[in-house]
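Saturday, quiet lab. Running sequence design on the structure tokens for the scaffold JK sent over.
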């Protein structure tokens, strides 16, 4: 007996894009209360080592065993009509060892209740993987760098002091040299201060924080200091709930981002500070727990954009496109945001650069209890 031919449940997606997509992609539809594969692309066939025709109409989570609450995610994506991101999930196809993947679920507006599921193995999702690698490398390297910085600062203070004493008995012409020693020593001390700050391993002291208070503090410092030549505009969503964060560390984040935006345009320009609430982005924290990041802050400038040569590595330490830049500003930002289980990314073209920071909401538990739990978690 020949098996009945299985028909596609929805019309195939316009061929070229679907076939060219280098990431395994599945269209999911509901049939008899079960989530089935309505279609899949060639990358998905390769990933599953099974042909498309054998996958159509199969219950998707029988074929793809995913170490994440997928049924809940599917229901939520349909209900909220919003995409959902799940990182670092182990995906097993039955044929081989589980593969660590980043998943995206998105409703397809034009096709009723259909959902698009993208399964990006970690090599494909390089950006996310790289962020984790930077985090691990930074942890080991920064402790040592901070210790070294501390040790070097003491003798430097001695050198600067001795140069100042020497200068007292010198003629003005010779004093130029001792002034140079003092100025250069100060510059090195400032650099070492930054290295020390970067190596600070203390966990954030998190509590419910009104992010607009933090942004206002950053904005006020900026307009009277390093961004006096810029025009700053805020576009705040006043209904934003509180962030679960360390106000001082978050202040440092936004100061660094505003400073970069101002330094990118020495002749002036505009910086917009925007806040928004948007569900959908979820990450796994170091302990494998699912963290939702619905609070977003965008720092937008209309400057020349990231220099293309370093655009992919600006969050790494000592990567700078400025003559006197140490390249530690964004590395520190990235470190703080990741200690907050948050996410930062940058989208930059000439005339429009956006740094977007996404953060978790403060829990509804009483603050005393919640902060005790956090201290324990992050120790
Ligand atoms: N808004 C921006 N527009 C254009 N380029 C930017 C922007 N933000 C960062 N950059 C680029 O990214 C580089 C790295 O930034 P980062 O803050 O890490 O270091 P830095 O500003 O060079 O030095 P530091 O902040 O340690 O003094 C900058 O040198 C600059 O080339
Ligand atoms: Mg900087």
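Result came back. Writing it out in full:
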């Amino acid at each position: 007996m020949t098996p009945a031919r299985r028909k596609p449940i929805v019309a195939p997606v316009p061929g070229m894009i679907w076939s060219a997509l280098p990431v395994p992609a599945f269209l999911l539809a509901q049939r008899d209360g079960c989530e089935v594969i309505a279609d899949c692309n060639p990358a998905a066939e390769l990933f599953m080592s099974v042909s498309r025709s054998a996958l159509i109409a199969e219950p998707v989570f029988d074929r793809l065993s995913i170490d994440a609450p997928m049924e809940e995610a599917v229901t939520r994506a349909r209900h909220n009509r919003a995409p959902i991101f799940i990182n670092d999930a182990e995906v097993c196809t039955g044929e081989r060892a589980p593969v660590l993947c980043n998943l995206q679920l998105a409703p397809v507006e034009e096709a009723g209740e259909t959902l698009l599921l993208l399964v990006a193995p970690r090599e494909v999702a390089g950006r996310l993987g790289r962020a984790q690698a930077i985090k691990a490398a930074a942890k080991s390297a920064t402790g040592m760098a901070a210790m070294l910085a501390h040790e070097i600062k003491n003798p430097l203070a001695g050198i600067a002091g001795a140069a100042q004493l020497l200068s007292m008995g010198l003629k003005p012409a010779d004093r130029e040299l001792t002034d140079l020693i003092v100025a250069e020593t100060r510059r090195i001390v400032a650099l070492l201060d930054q290295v020390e700050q970067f190596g600070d391993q203390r966990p954030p002291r998190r509590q419910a924080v009104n992010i607009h208070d933090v942004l206002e503090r950053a904005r006020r410092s900026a307009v009277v200091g390093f961004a006096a030549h810029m025009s700053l505009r805020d576009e705040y969503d006043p209904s934003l709930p509180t962030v679960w964060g360390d106000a001082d560390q978050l202040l440092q984040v936004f100061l660094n981002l505003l400073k970069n935006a101002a330094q990118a345009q020495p002749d002036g320009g505009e910086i917009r500070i925007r806040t928004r609430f948007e569900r959908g982005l979820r990450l796994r924290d170091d302990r494998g727990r699912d963290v939702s990041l619905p609070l977003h802050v965008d720092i937008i400038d209309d400057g020349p954009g990231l220099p293309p040569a370093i655009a992919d590595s600006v969050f790494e330490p000592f990567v700078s496109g400025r003559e006197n830049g140490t390249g530690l500003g964004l590395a520190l930002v990235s470190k703080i945001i990741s200690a907050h289980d948050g996410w930062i990314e940058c989208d930059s073209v000439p005339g429009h650069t956006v740094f977007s920071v996404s953060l978790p909401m403060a829990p509804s538990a009483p603050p005393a209890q919640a902060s005790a739990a956090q201290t324990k978690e992050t120790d």
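Notes for JK: The chain has a mean pLDDT of 83. The two ends are 64 Å apart (CA to CA). Ask whether to fix the surface positions before the next round.
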